[in-house]
Structures are given as C-alpha cells and as structure tokens.
Amino acid sequence: MRLNQVTAPALDLDLSIAFYQFLGLKLIVKSAHYARFELPEGEATFSLHLTEGEVARAQAPQIYFECVDVEAEVTRLMQAGVAFEHAPRMQDWLWCEAWLRDPAGNHICLYHAGENRTHPPWRLGD
Questions:
Q1: Residue 91 lies in a domain
Q2: pTM (two decimals)
Q3: Going residue by residue through the chain (126 aa), what tens digit of pLDDT does each one get?
Q4: Three-state DSSP class for 54?
Q5: 85 in a structural domain
Q6: Of 27, 70, 78, 85, which one is least surrounded by beta carbons within 10 A?
Q7: Which CATH number belongs to the domain containing residue 9 in this structure?
Q8: 126 lies in some domain
Q9: Which of 29, 35, 70 is nearest to 51 (CA)?
Q10: In contact, 86 and 97? CB cutoff 8 Å
C-alpha cells in the first residue's frame, strides 16, 4: 500500500495555490474547485478542494512537509511575509519543527527528522 495524496480544504483556491507553489509544490491539476500538486521529492501528492464555511482549526489533521534545512526555509518564508505560530525548535522526539497556517487555516509543520523520521531510537522491532 502507498499513500497517494492528502487533500486539504481551501477557502480561496487561487490564494491557496499561490501559497503552496511558494512552498515549492508543483501545480499539476487545476479546476474551479480542485488543485493537485507534486512535491519536490517522493511520490505522494497534495491537493486542495474548495470548500465553504470554516475550516477546522482544532482537532483537525496536521500537514507535515519535510525540509532539509528548516531554519533556512523559515527564514525564506518569513522574509516574504509568511507568519509562523512557532519558530523552529528541536522536539523531544528528535524532530526540528516550525508551525504555520495556510491561507485557509490548515495547520502545517515544516520539519526535519533525518533518520529519526522512521527509525527513532525507540522504534519497535520488525
């Protein structure tokens, strides 16, 4: 089994498309109510679906995008005016994380975990 895609809600599709393109995702499908992106690495894709009403901010899925250099990516985005809820910091689970929201309010984590992404010291045996 492989992960195909994750779809997040968008209140303003064009604004959200521009945001995710600025993050580095490549737009591959666009309609009046839907957009789909390829990520710079890996096979999974990310998509947006136009919705009305509020987007859940609490107890909603969180979107994780791994970066090689979180600090540099946060600096680049902040210089362009992107606001962060939490600056980069090393977590107890050995991931460097920075948190922000997309234009619809979806919670996004930019992180780097390296080997600890799938093989932390406490990983269960196969």
A1: yes
A2: 0.92
A3: 888 899 999 999 999 999 999 999 999 999 999 999 999 988 889 999 999 988 888 888 999 999 999 999 999 999 999 999 999 999 999 999 999 999 999 999 999 999 999 999 999 987
A4: coil
A5: yes
A6: 85
A7: 3.10.180.10
A8: no
A9: 35
A10: yes
